[in-house]
Amino acid sequence: MKYRIAPCLLAFAFLVAACGQNAGRTGSAPVAMTPVAAVSERPLSKAAKIKAVNRFFTAYAAGDMDGIRAVLTEDVQWTIPGHHPLSGTKRGVDEVVAFFTQLGKGGFQAEPMFLEANADYVVDIHRGWTTKGNGKVDTMWALVWHFNREGKIDRVFNLSGDQHQMDAYVWGNYTLKPIPGRLQ
């Protein structure tokens, strides 16, 4: 099956990369932008950033959580869109790894199709799909990856080509903790 990258998804991914992680959202506090002078001081090349994202995908495909940890900062922030139990911003490498462990239970797969970098970001477009569970997800995703000065990923923002499909799948396969455990 061939997939066409929705132009609006690609454009939005580049907008987020150019403007910060709160692009397109209202009521959010502004995100501090990296000063132009600091951008040129970054030691990691565009190719090295793309290689780090590819290392992430390789580790994810193998279920290698240590490999995922190796490319992320300890205080990474990873934002998952949606209205479901797995959505929201994961703060710290432990939360991110727990999220990907849960995705692994759904048999989530990813096939990178496009990677491009600038001084601060990598944008990837990939096909993501499920192989287990009730229902299915099979859609395009755009991720905006940000790197710190040491060349590790410190912020990721996901964008879904079909958020309703993802929301329905997650609600059908993952449950919230019962109250009061969920409120602690």
Automatic annotation (TrEMBL):
Tagged with keyword Nucleotide-binding: no
Secretion signal, residue range per the UniProt entry: 1-23
All residue ranges annotated as the SnoaL-like domain in the record: 53-155
Matching InterPro entries: NTF2-like_dom_sf, SnoaL-like
One Pfam short name: SnoaL_2
Keywords of this entry: Signal
Keyword Signal recorded: yes
Protein name, UniProt field: SnoaL-like domain-containing protein
Organism name: Nonomuraea longicatena
